[in-house]
Amino acid sequence: MQTWPGFLCNYIKREILILTMLKIGLTGGIGSGKTTVANIFKVFDIPVLDADTVAKELMEKDITVVTAIRKVFGNEVYLHGKLNRAYLAGIVFKDENKLHTLNAIVHPATIAFSQQWMAQQQSAYVIKEAALFFESGSDKEMDYMVGVTAPLELRIARVMKRDNTTRSAVLARMNQQMDENKKLKRCQFVLQNDETQLLLPQIIKLHSHFLALAKTTV
After folding, report:
1. HSE on the CB side for 48, CA within 13 Å?
2. Is pLDDT of 173 > 90?
3. Rounded to the nearest 10 degrees, what angle do helices 51-61 and 96-119 cross at?
4. Is 75 helix (H, G, I), strand (E, B) or coil?
5. Is 190 in contact with 146 (CB distance < 8 Å)?
6. Which of 33, 50, 30, 21 has the alpha carbon at shortest distance from 190?
7. By the 8 A CB rule, do 103 and 132 touch?
8. Which end of the chain has a smaller Cβ tally under 10 Å, C or N?
């Protein structure tokens, strides 16, 4: 049985860990390979939150979000309780105002979920992976931002193969995202995923760096 002093000591250690745990944002344009990078960090037992997946789940399960989306885009945006993503994409990727409206509904809920998730983690650092960090303003909550980049044609080819879609469709989605050069300038660290430079050594180096930074903040 744990004694009261022992319990108190462990509690204080946990609170210190939460306060000093680094929050790392991981971003990149479509096809850059940020999810591949996130999966490698998971191998090092680093907690990773996929904010884009969280957003998709909230759009189907969070009653406040669902109600707001129905109000703006109509009931036909849902089929049998599931979000009709093709229908919604056909609207927002052709109308920038509608895209901004959708983001204004989803981003606050996603940020709130992310904050709760981070508060529950116990690690030297955690990673939040998202495509729209700077667009949503959630980068301000991160200690450091990591950008993943790749040549444009390689990104297009990756997405066409992954989503079985056309080049024009990929370009339309890219045009809705922040310019990659502007995005990378706002990142403290950049990983090259161009298939000419090995990705793993870059990530190992960054992992070691974050561990060292976490120690200096204690």
Report:
1. 20
2. no
3. 100
4. helix
5. yes
6. 33
7. yes
8. N
Instruction: Give the pair of three-digit tokens for residue 105.
Output: 């509904």
Query: Could you tell me if 47 and 167 are in contact, meaning their C-beta atoms sit under 8 angstroms apart?
Result: no
Q: Which pair of structure tokens corresponds to residue 59? A: 């759009």
Side chain identity at residue 110, one-letter code: T
CB atoms within 10 A of CB 172: 14
| pTM for the whole structure | 0.84
Q: How many CB atoms lie within 10 A of CB 76?
A: 10
Number of neighbouring beta carbons within 10 Å of residue 58: 18
What does the block give as tokens for 205? Answer: 């180096």
> 168: helix, coil or strand?
helix
Q: Of 79, 141, 73, which Cα lies nearest the Cα of 106?
A: 73
What would the pLDDT profile of 140-166 be if each residue is shown by its tens digit? 999 999 999 999 999 999 999 999 999
**Element (DSSP H or E) covering residue 191:** strand 189-192
Q: Which residue shows structure tokens 């105002």? A: 97
Which tokens go with 95? 């109308």
pLDDT in tens, 39-93: 999 999 999 999 999 999 999 999 999 999 999 999 999 998 899 998 998 899 8
Is residue 19's pLDDT more than 90? Answer: no
DSSP three-state, residue 123? coil
pLDDT at 193 over 90: yes
| CA distance linking residue 73 with residue 54, whole number of Å | 20
Cβ neighbours for 97, distance < 8 A, ≥ 6 positions apart: none
At residue 189, what is the residue type?
A: F
